[in-house]
Amino acid sequence: MWMITNDKSWASLEAQFPWVADMPAVPQDARHHAEGNVAVHTQMVLQALQQQPDYQALPPQDQEILWAAALLHDVEKRSTTATEPDGSITAHGHARKGAMTARRVLYMDIPTPFALREQVTALVRYHGLPLWLLEKPNPVKELVKASLELDTRQLALLARADALGRICTDQADLLYRIDCFEAFCREQGCWGQPRAFASAHARMRYLQ
Hints:
The chain has helices at 10-16, 18-21, 38-51, 53-56, 60-72, 77-80, 94-109, 114-125, 129-132, 139-147, 152-164, 171-187, 200-207, and strands spanning 82-83, 89-90. It has 208 residues and is mainly alpha-helical. It has one domain (10-207). The protein has a two-stranded antiparallel ribbon with strand order 1-2. Strand 1 (82-83) and strand 2 (89-90) form a beta hairpin. The longest helix is centred in the C-terminal third of the chain and has 17 residues, at 171-187.
C-alpha cells in the first residue's frame, strides 16, 4: 500500500520534508485562522480529518490519499502569502500552485503510482471548491470538471477537515457551505462519481 511516509509524527515530517519545515514561518490572517501559522493549521486539519467517521470507514489506501492531500493542501501558502495594504493576509492562487508542487513532490521525491498521484494532486487543487462553488460564475460546470478528476465525497471530507481545523468566527457557515456542496453534487449526479455523459464526444464538447 502506498503512503507518503510511514512516520507521521510532526517532528519527523519537518525533518523529512523541507516544505513541511517551511510551514511554521507562514502566517495566516487571524480573521480566518486565529489558530496561527500554516503548520498549526495543517496539524489541526490532519487531526480533524482522522476524527471523521466517514474517513475512518474508508479503505486504508483511500485514507492514505486523503491524509497526503491534507498534509499538502496549503503547501504553497509559503510562496503566495502577502500582506495587503489594509493589513490583511492573503494567499491567492495557493491551491493551483500547491497542486503543481504536490505533483512534483509525488513524482520526483516520493515515487507514487500515477493514478494515486493525480488523486492527491486534484484534492489539493480543488480543496477550497466546496466552500466557494456556489459563488462561481458557472457552478455546474466547475463541479462537473472537478467530478471528472476526483471523488467528490473525498473532497468534501477534506474541506470539512479544513474548516474544522481552524479557529474562526464563521466556522458554522463554512460547514453549512460544505453541506450545500454535497446536496448540489447529489442534484447534479456528481456525488462520489463523475458526471455521466452520453458519449466521450459529448463530454469533450461540454468541456470546450
